[in-house]
Design a protein that fits this description.
The chain is of the alpha+beta class. The chain is about 45% helix and about 10% strand. The protein has a 4-stranded mixed sheet, with helices on one face. One of its GO terms (molecular function) is zinc ion binding.
Length: about 425
């Protein structure tokens, strides 16, 4: 019965728990085999009772047997697995298989049945000579059969752009432009070759542009890295220069302070000595004024009336408003000028950077003669594709002609950076193309 023996042999290697081919098969003492994970799961639920049984024959085991992989069965299962492929989502199922369906590989347009490898061999043995028309099982067979006449689609109606059977030619599609499906396939095959050729050429162009863009990106990264390193180096040198100037100014202030303090200390010593002498002379005068010896008074008076060193000590005028405010004002003015100059230079760098374009995308929008769209609509369509890119230079197109829009991605430009300009251009194709 359609090689049911092969299916029965395969059923021997099916786990009765998961109903799939055995995975890591183990064989119990009763002779039944299971997936290692399946029998472990069953016995884990029986741990409470301490009695373990075979899910098929119910033979019990105590204590719980040790499980080991049966390598002989594992090898046989692997051979079966290679010759058996179950149908998954989107696959065509074998119409002959019972239980779990195997993926179909061929469909017979005479029997109107899809077969797996095993059943297709049986079909060929039952129909020798290749009299039946078969095809690859690429889709449900029902989609290739006329539901009205229950005949296979063999004709293509160019008028209605649909598949029909030969009986439809004398019915609904009478006097229509019809050809065989094979003839239409030949025509479309030529178009496919041309489309494939254009696609391959475009692929090569895109791959070349991709490589150029990657190189440009790497150049940009290296250039930006070099600019950052150079900028940090220059700013470090500027900081060192400012620190050096700061040290020089501080040293000048300290030198001036030291000189002025030295002069003041000399005057302080002389003034202190003069005060000592004057106090001693004042005491002598006070003592002389009270003496009763007229002779001693007259002898001492001339020497005590003249202050010692009065002609040698100059008068001292102290500038109480002396300060280093002028130095502070000069340093503040230098800071303000440096801030203004650095701000002007940063703005200059920013302005020069905004004038350079790193990447330009040139997109050609093709308009159909029967569905001509305005340039504004084209811009809106591109804006949805590149929401973060400014669209400029949008020209107005005419029916059947191209409209080129230029998009730009702008990045800052720094002195010493070299950025390569890349153009990505869509190849101009026929007006029947509708893709950007």
């Amino acid at each position: 019965d359609l090689h049911q023996g092969d299916l029965k042999d395969q059923d021997l290697f099916t786990c009765s728990v998961c109903l799939d081919l055995l995975k890591d098969p183990v064989t119990l003492h009763c002779g039944h085999s299971y997936c290692l994970s399946c029998i472990k799961g069953c016995w884990d639920e029986e741990d409470q009772n301490g009695v373990y049984s075979c899910p098929q024959c119910r033979r019990t085991f105590r204590p719980r047997p040790d499980l080991h992989k049966n390598n002989v069965i594992a090898d046989l299962v692997e051979k079966v697995r290679k010759t058996r492929r179950y149908a998954g989502p989107g696959d065509v199922e074998c119409d002959v298989c019972t239980g779990r369906k195997v993926k179909a590989v061929k469909s017979c347009l005479v029997c109107l049945v899809s077969y797996c490898d095993t059943h297709f061999k049986v079909h060929n043995e039952a129909n020798p000579g290749g009299k039946h028309t078969v095809m690859d099982a690429t889709g449900p067979l029902q989609e290739k059969i006329c539901f009205k006449h229950n005949k296979v689609f063999e004709i293509f109606c160019r008028t209605d752009q649909t598949f029909i059977c030969y009986l439809c030619m004398t019915d609904k599609h009478k006097n229509h432009d019809t050809v065989s499906a094979a003839a239409e396939r030949t025509e479309k095959q030529r178009q496919l070759v041309e489309t494939q050729r254009r696609s391959q050429r475009r692929l090569q162009e895109r791959e070349k542009e991709l490589q150029e863009l990657r190189k440009a990106v790497e150049t940009l990264k290296h250039s930006a890295k070099a600019a950052v390193e150079d900028s940090e180096k220059i700013f470090t040198q500027m900081i060192c220069s400012i620190e050096k100037r700061c040290s020089e100014v501080c040293e000048l202030i300290r030198d001036q302070e030291k000189a002025e303090l030295s002069r003041a200390e000399g005057h302080l010593e002389r003034l202190e000595q003069e005060i000592v002498d004057l106090r001693r002379r004042d005491a002598e005068l006070e003592q002389l004024s009270h003496t009763e010896d007229h002779i001693h008074f007259l002898e001492s008076f001339p020497s005590l009336c003249v202050p010692p060193g009065s002609s040698d000590v100059p008068n001292i005028t102290v500038n109480r408003s002396f300060s280093f405010q002028a130095v502070e004002d000069s340093v503040s003015a230098l800071k303000a000028k440096l801030d203004d100059f650095s701000q002007w230079q940063v703005e200059k760098i920013s302005r020069s950077g905004s004038m350079q374009t790193f990447l330009e995308l040139r997109v050609t929008v093709l308009e159909r003669p029967s569905h001509s769209t305005s340039s504004e609509h084209s811009v809106n369509a591109l804006a949805q594709i590149w929401p973060n890119v400014d669209l400029t230079n949008a020209g107005e197109g005419q029916a059947g002609r191209t409209v080129t829009l230029v998009t730009s991605l702008r990045l800052p430009k720094f002195r010493g950076c070299r950025m390569k300009r890349i153009y990505l251009k869509e190849r101009k194709s026929s007006c029947h193309d509708s893709t950007f």
